[in-house]
Queue: 2 jobs
Job 1
Amino acid sequence: MKTNDKLFKVFIFICLLLIALSIIVPVGWVFIASLKTNSEFYANPWALPKSFYFENFVDAWQSANMGDYFLNSVIVTALALIILLAIALPCAYILARMEFKGKKFATAFMNAGLFINLSYIVIPIFIMLRDGNKLLNNTFLANIFGNGFLMNNRLVLAIIYASTAVPFTVYLLSNFFSSISKSYEEAAYIDGASYFRTMIDIIIPMAKPAVITVILFNFLSFWNEYILALTIMTDSSMKTLPVGLINLQQAARGAANYGRLYSGLVLVMLPTLIMYILVQKQLTEGMMVGGDKG
């Protein structure tokens, strides 16, 4: 039995090592390639750079407008996360902790949204925004918001991102909220706390790992989303980072400037890597630890 256990542990270790290498090697290669000149890249793509050629990042940031795309992605992602949490936290709290008529239907209706992928409804969303602009252009609102307000608008894009992420976020948070003992709420009600105050001061702090988890997952989804941003953000000044990266890739094919291309890839990957490193501990707790069921 001991021999079998050791063999199993060795097998698991080898599998984990191979998985780690399959992730680390491509990411490390992109970072190395981003610091090379074109001549070094063509000489040996796997060799270490002779010197750190940071001009690739400057060229990508300024000449390829990656700085503007980066700012657009930051604004859209931040707005989408704020809107999402403002909607999903109270909704999950109500579904998990309160009893009311129609709760089962509301829960089932919310869970049905889990099966709707954003890429499936891009065309209907585009048609709705286009027709909405036509209606706005024929009213006094056009004088306030301008023509074509619903297209090339970072706030509108953020609202769409947040609304499509509500079902998954509510599902995850409500399951975590349900695992927390109701004794905490009962003590708060005895002290005169309202439902809102109880949610803000007691339930959400206790569910911090779950909140961090949904923030990270949705951050990755919003940051890397491409199809919808490409469809409704037609103005070059409003493009997000993934869309700008595709434009940079197409330009690199013609100009053979691979250092600038891989620098753009690093700009896309770096925020997600930093985000994961910062919340790794909370993410692990959110995936593995539930609340006190009392």
Note: The CA atoms of residues 95 and 104 lie 9 Å apart.
Job 2
Amino acid sequence: MKTAYGENITTAMDGHVAVVTIDRPPTNFVSVDLVRDLAEALEAADGADAVRAIVLQAEGKAFCAGADLARSDDRVAIGMEGVSALYQQAARLFAIETPVVAAVQGAAVGAGLGLAVCCDFRIASPEARFAANFVKLGFHPGFALTHTLPRLIGEQRAHLMFLTGRRIKAEEALAWGLVDQLVPAEDLRGAALALAREIGENAPLAVAATRKTSRRGLLEAARAQMAHEHQQQTILRATEDFAEGVRAVNERRAGNFKGR
């Protein structure tokens, strides 16, 4: 039996595992509403005594391709007030106390990368790609990635991703520790569920206490970092380079940036 949260999020139980699905294919672009609904689904699972682990998965060809900045009807695309609202909802994801395993297929880009990184573990298929492509948009990284990504893969590799905007293939992501396990696409959800079940077999109070210690200070750091990121994004969003970056990405070409 599935429980719906808004139009694009559903939850189903598998033993002690809550399987949360983002269903906005093919790219699962983030929006304020989608992240709010996702937070509500995760909070509901977090508060259920029967849930000991969570799998986060997505329908379509991509795990999450970030924000669709080309849309004129999306709050995040329209302006920084929408981005602020997005980050308010994103902070709720960092407050979840139950371990979360992400099943990543296709692209995890921008805010989609931020979503994947805020989970405890990432199981990926060979088709997965990871990118912090903000500089290609003339923009600043967000979704607390300037804190969470270096924490996960180290400062130098995160710096490389931030300043080049390059896409990291699944095999390299595995070597870097960005991905915990690489499996064929047909085995992806099964592998994520298996890891969640393995976690769920352990003493729940011990798991919760250990996770809380390991992630100590993460929520507060993520909130503070998103506030700083939003400040920098506000400055850059007003530039000509940002407008050119959005056009370039939508037209699948390199940006012709002028530094203004």
Note: The first helix runs from residue 32 to 46.
